[in-house]
Amino acid sequence: MIGAGLVVCGALVVCGALVVSAWGADPTAALSFLVLKDDNGKPIRNAAVVLHPVNTKGKQGRGGFELKTDADGKTHFEGVPYGKLRVQVLAPGFQTFGEDYEIAEASKEITVKLKRPQKQYSIYDDPTAPEKKDAPKDSAEKPQ
C-alpha cells in the first residue's frame, strides 16, 4: 500500500513539474515568408532568408538561421522566440533586403519584394561634358 502511494505521489510531482515548465516556457511563433520580384510579382526560387535575433539595444545577436525559398518563393520556420528579429533576404541579381520585425503573435506572414540593382552614378561623371577627342573609343584604338 505504501509503495503504491509513493508511486502515485511521485507521478503527481512529475506531472506538476511538466505543467509548470510548459507554462513558464517562452512563447514561440511560426513565420511564413513569401519572396517576390518587385517589378512583376513573380516568386523568387532559392532566395536565402536569414533570421537573426536582435537584443534590446538593437544589436544583432549571435546565431540565427538560414532558410531557402521553394519554387513558389515560399519558406516557413517554427519555433521563433517572441521579440525583435532581423530578417535579411538575398538572391543573385537582386538588391539585398533587410528589416527588423517585432514578433509578438503565434504566427506571422512576411512578404518581401526584391528590387533589381539600380544604375550607379559617379560624382566624377558629367553628363553635359563633351566626349574627349583623344580618348580611345574601344580597345583596338588604345595608344601604344
Shape: elongated
Order of strands, main sheet, comes to 3-2-5-6
Proportion of residues in β-strands: 35-45%
Mean pLDDT: 79
Tell me the span between the first and last alpha carbons: 107 Å
Q: Based on helices, strands and strand pairing, what is the structural class? A: alpha+beta
The helix count comes to: 1
What can you tell me about this protein's structure?
This protein is of the alpha+beta class and 144 residues long. The chain has one helix spanning 2-23; strands at 28-37, 48-53, 65-68, 74-81, 83-90, 97-103, 107-114. The strands form two sheets. It has a four-stranded antiparallel sheet, with no helix packed on it. A three-stranded mixed sheet has the order 4-1-7, with no helix packed on it. The longest helix is centred in the N-terminal third of the chain and has 22 residues, at 2-23. The model is unreliable at 3-24 (pLDDT under 50).
Provide a concise account of the structure shown.
The chain contains 1 helix and 7 strands. It is of the alpha+beta class.
Relevant terms:
15% helix; three-stranded mixed β-sheet; four-stranded antiparallel β-sheet; alpha+beta; single chain; disordered N terminus; 144 residues; 1 helix
Question: What is the secondary structure topology, with strand pairs?
Answer:
Elements: H1 2-23, E1 28-37, E2 48-53, E3 65-68, E4 74-81, E5 83-90, E6 97-103, E7 107-114
Parallel strand pairs: 1-7
Antiparallel strand pairs: 1-4, 2-3, 2-5, 5-6
